[in-house]
Design brief:
Pfam families: Response_reg. InterPro entries: CheY-like_superfamily, Sig_transdc_resp-reg_receiver. Keywords: Kinase, Phosphoprotein, Transferase, Two-component regulatory system. This is Two-component sensor protein/histidine protein kinase. This protein is an alpha/beta fold and about 120 residues long. Helix content is about 45%, strand content about 20%. It is built from 5 helices and 5 strands, in the order βαβαβαβαβα. It has helices at about 10-25, 35-45, 60-70, 85-95, 110-120, and strands at about 5, 25-30, 50, 80, 100-105. Strands 2-1-3-4-5 form a 5-stranded parallel beta sheet, sandwiched between helices. Helix 3 links the parallel strand 3 (about 50) and strand 4. Helix 2 packs parallel to helix 3 (about 60-70). The longest helix has 13 residues, at about 10-25. The two termini are about 20 Å apart.
Length: about 120
């Protein structure tokens, strides 16, 4: 079963997205801030990470940079999730090391297509 780490501080978003992904057959791990996301990524080695960019303790940009700098986690694809839909936000996410970007509110079929594409593409 594909394991996805969802790093999201908003309880409603976290609950809704984790339930919808679980119904699609994904095993969902949860982190509520960037620091926990980095630690869970290293200890659990998920297949993919969905990273909110506006997080407490450590933001998603820094968390992604740390995940991509760690030899243990650098190969894990990261999709940035953010309410900021400006082109510059997408560029910032990609510059931080994210492999893809999706804006909130999440369009689940589109997000699942991105997840499946990243999981079948060598990194």
């Amino acid at each position: 079963m594909t394991r996805i780490l969802l790093v999201e501080d908003n309880e409603m978003n976290r609950d809704m997205l984790s339930r919808r992904l679980s119904r699609r057959g994904f095993d969902v791990l949860i982190a509520e801030n960037g620091k926990d996301g980095v630690e869970i990524a290293a200890s659990e080695r998920p297949d993919l990470i969905l990273m909110d960019m506006s997080l407490p303790v450590m933001d998603g940009w820094e968390a992604t940079r740390q995940i991509k700098a760690n030899p243990v986690t650098c190969g894990i694809p990261v999709i940035a999730l953010t309410a900021h839909a400006m082109a510059s936000d997408r560029d910032m996410a990609l510059d931080a090391g994210c492999d893809d970007y999706d804006s909130k509110p999440v369009d689940l079929p589109q997000l699942v297509r991105k997840i499946e594409q990243l999981l079948t593409t060598p990194h």
